[in-house]
Design a protein that fits this description.
single chain; two-stranded antiparallel sheet; alpha+beta; 4 strands; binds iron/sulfur cluster; 29% strand; Alpha-Beta Plaits
Length: 62
């Protein structure tokens, strides 16, 4: 199952990934992106591609 990992040190809190995710996986928590519904992540990679800081990576987990 894919899920996004946010590098909090790199995240600027812009919210682009939150708006980009078609499955509402991400939310801003204390001005940092956080996966709040990671079971819904399809691995589409839109958040990763749109993040201007390169703060998101996707990992595959069983
Ligand atoms: S798009 Fe990148 S920098 Fe912006 S909130 Fe998401 S993870 Fe943080
Ligand atoms: S990979 Fe796609 S579904 Fe998963 S968090 Fe990013 S934008 Fe959302």
């Amino acid at each position: 199952m894919p899920r996004p990992i946010i590098n909090e040190d790199e995240c600027s809190g812009c919210g682009i990934c939150v708006d980009t995710c078609p499955d509402s996986v991400l939310e801003l928590v204390d001005d940092k992106a956080e996966p709040v519904n990671e079971d819904d992540c399809t691995g589409c990679a839109s958040c990763m591609e749109e993040c201007p800081m390169g703060a998101i990576v996707e990992v595959e987990e069983d």
